[in-house]
Design a protein that fits this description.
single chain; mainly alpha; two-stranded antiparallel ribbon; 53% helix
Length: 217
Amino acid sequence: MKAVGVSDSLRLEPIVASRANTGVVRTLVIRQVAAMIEESGLYLQELAERTGIPADLLAGIKVGFFEPNQPQLLALVRALASPEEVRDGVFVGMPAERRRRAATARRSGWNYRNGPPVGDPPDVGAPDPMLIEKVEELVPALREVRVWALKPTLRELEARGRGVLTRSSLSEMLNGRVPIPPYPRYRAYLEACGIQDLDAWTFTWCRLTKLQEAKKN
């Protein structure tokens, strides 16, 4: 997926550094691309699908462990750069406001797309998914998660849902109209509520899904 206005002939050198040493320019671009990954709020798997770059490599680029090659830089800029960051086919760099948002994301664990983290849920008392034995117990447990997370509004959860959650889908899920939510929505909801032990919840989702399929057969 290309950002609007980013052409196939995109050159990476920022205008502001066009006279600088090539290595310095490349380092500047790599740092800004890493910041754009952080600020975008995209799951690495989603970005991998957009760019063709493996998610594990993207994780390394994001934290500075790996240095992307030229085709990978082009793919990342096309996927992440906004129109104002490209001028006449040249990547001009992130504006000051976006750089500030990226810095905030690195410091506090949230980004512009997802909004600030949910309150400060208690360190203890989160619902235990391993106690869920029946399909019909899942939705009440998801409601308990929201209470444990200090009852964020549907609007707040939507803002933190990385494009996966909407207020209507959240309402549908929490009202039990769907006994077992689709996994991406289920996981995004738990993350938005601040759940840390996602492996246990994933295991429970798989177990209940198999139970539901067995009943249908």
